[in-house]
Specification:
alpha+beta; 2 domains; two-stranded antiparallel sheet; Arc Repressor Mutant, subunit A; Dna Ligase, domain 1; three-stranded mixed sheet
Length: 126
C-alpha cells in the first residue's frame, strides 16, 4: 500500500471525475489549477501507480501517447482517426465469445480490450 499524499489525491480525483481519456500532460495542467506544488514527474509516477493498483487503465492512442481511463472494468474503445476522440463501448456477446475462444484454447484468466479505429460523425461532416 502506498502513502496517500495531497498530490496523489488531487491526481486521482482528476482522473475519477472525467469521462475523457486524458494524457499525463492534461492531468498535470488540471492538477496545477489546484496546487502549484506538483511536478509533471509526480503526475507520471502517480498515474503509473494507479495503473499498477488497478484503479485506472492505460492504453495508447493513434499517436502512441499514453492515455488513462478512469473505468478499470473491462470495456473497449472506438477511436477517431482524425480528431482522436475516444468513446467507451461494451458488448456482452462479444465478451462471452472472447471468453469461449480463450477456453477452447485452454487459456485462463482471459481479459481483452478491443480498439476500433474509424472516423467519428463530427469529422465525417467536415
Amino acid at each position: 500500500m502506498y502513502r496517500e499524499t495531497k498530490q496523489r489525491k488531487i491526481i486521482e480525483d482528476i482522473i475519477k471525475n472525467t469521462r475523457e481519456h486524458p494524457d499525463a500532460l492534461w492531468v498535470f495542467q488540471k492538477a496545477q489549477e489546484k496546487t502549484s506544488k506538483i511536478s509533471l514527474g509526480t503526475v507520471y509516477r502517480t498515474l503509473e501507480l494507479l495503473v499498477r493498483e488497478g484503479k485506472i487503465n492505460k492504453f495508447y492512442d493513434t499517436s502512441a501517447v499514453a492515455r488513462f481511463d478512469s473505468n478499470p472494468n473491462p470495456h473497449h474503445h472506438l477511436i477517431c482517426k482524425i480528431c482522436g476522440k475516444i468513446i467507451d463501448w461494451h458488448d456482452e456477446n462479444l465478451d462471452k465469445r472472447i471468453e469461449e475462444i480463450g477456453k477452447v484454447n485452454k487459456f485462463k484468466d482471459i481479459t481483452s480490450e478491443i480498439f476500433i479505429y474509424g472516423i467519428c460523425p463530427e469529422c465525417q461532416r467536415k
